[in-house]
Amino acid sequence: MRKQLTESTVLFISIIKWVFLATIAGAIVGGATALFLKILGWATDFGHHSPYTFLLLPIALFLSALSIKYLAPDAEGHGTEKVIEAIHKRSGRIGIAVVPVKLVATIITLAVGGSVGKEGPCAQIGAGLTSFFSDLLKFDDHDRKKLVICGISAGFAAVFGTPIAGSFFGVEVLFVGAILYEVLLPSFIAGITAYQVSSALGVTYFHEAVNVIPVFSELFLLKVMAGGLFFGLCSIFLIEMLKLGDRLSGRLTIWKPFKGLIGGVLLVILAYVFSTKYLGLGLSTMEAGFRGETTDWYAFLIKPIFTAITLSFGGSGGIVTPIFFVGSTAGLFFASVFSLNAGTFAAIGLVSVLAGSANTPIAASIMAVEMFGPQIAPYATVACVISFLITGHRSVYPSQVLSISKSPSLKVELGKELENIQSSYLPREKSLVGAILHFIDRVERLVGKIQGTISSSDNSEMDNAQEKKNK
Q: What's the structural domain count of the chain?
């Protein structure tokens, strides 16, 4: 009895401790996120006064790269990736200088049309503030990591207005196939608190109820499953484009701010070739898609190019908003091909590409409910899980740690970051994949034998004909 009382007392004290800490963290991050979003709104409104503001992209990316290089190198790229890396490799230690530098660099990038998102800075700002808070309280590595995860969840919840999905995203995004259950309670409290604080400070959010959901049928479910496959392929394309951008930038052995000038020039040229709607957040294009309005059929293929150049050549910002753009426009394309409701599949595409490219199927499924209403939940969940599986062992966050293999027929090394993962086929007895490959192999051998027989027969006939001719 004494042992049970002691255990219960310790757990009760721990709950009280983390409820208190998570509430404070949520309030701080919610206030900081609201400040960032207000300043970002003013900056982008100022940039929209002239249709030629995007011509300043070379200067903006140069200044962004310059400030990051000399003031806070950890603020480079899309912020969430740096936070995941800090949690796995440095127990959540993030320099406080990252917060103002990331805020300023992202505002500079987005104000003139850089193709990035706004969630990465919020996650990195939240993580930076909670890391600094942990240092003030002299937390050990375990508690620091726990509080920094709360900061990530609070940042996501406050920036998208999805307190449950945002909170869960901060926990799910760290590992592929595993969740830190001990951080669930403080993450949810921090996320909900941050959302309430940012809302109270005047931040408004986009929510669009999808009302045109067909009556359930096997045929419609098959179409949703086909959509999940397609959205998984879109996720792969986005991830590979980001990798390609990093490789191309890495080959340029020049001063990093000069890369910003080059990237800005490339974006200006692409904007003239395609459209300026692929610059910036792209919110108007997404919102039009949810209303059923069409856009360029190739939009989901062009946006990753703009985003890869922006992030790889000096720009600063997040990746989730571009993911939303790719997903929603891919949904519009899929709906147009199969004559489906555009708004419904724009919504399903948005969360499915998030699930696939970020390896967060649960958070993406919850986000579908919070953003588009409960009617879409069953279909969005099916598409999210399929997209998550199809993407394989890759991610827009290469520092994610792999905890499961997405197929027992694939050999992968668990416990390593995705950037270091190499998968290979693992033959298994009574495996469907193995049976299919074995069948294909036998068919190839049979075709080879038939071709060999035909070739031998043809050669014999030619030899006989030649002998007759000689005679």
A: 3
Average pLDDT, the chain: 87
Query: In this structure, which amino acid lies at residue 58?
Result: P
Say if 158 falls within a structural domain: yes
pLDDT confidence band for 289 (50 / 70 / 90): confident
Rounded Cα gap, residues 229 and 356, in angstroms: 10
* 385 within domain boundaries: yes
Pair 451, 404 in one domain = no
Of 247, 228, 263, the C-alpha closest to 54 is: 263
Residues 168, 293 within the same domain: no
Tell me which of 40 and 217 has the higher pLDDT.
40
Tokens describing residue 159: 């920036």
pLDDT-derived band at 385 (thresholds 50, 70, 90) equals very high
Beta pairing partners, 78 = 317
pLDDT computed for residue 427 by the predictor: 67
- Same domain? For 194 and 137 the reply is yes
pTM: 0.88
Q: Choose one of 172, 200, 228: the last residue of a domain.
A: 200
- Angstrom distance (rounded) from CA 312 to CA 335: 32
Average pLDDT over residues 136-151: 92
Q: How far is CA 327 from CA 1, 121, 315, 354, 394, in A?
A: 55, 21, 22, 7, 17
- Give residue 1's pLDDT band: very low, low, confident or very high (50, 70, 90): very low
- Residue 125 CA to residue 82 CA, distance in Å, equals 11
pLDDT level of residue 413 (50, 70, 90 thresholds)? confident
- Which pLDDT does position 269 carry in this prediction? 96
Asked whether residue 46 is domain-assigned, the answer is yes
Determine the structural domain holding residue 11 and report its residue range.
2-200
Residues 18 and 86 in one domain: yes
Same structural domain for residues 33 and 125? yes
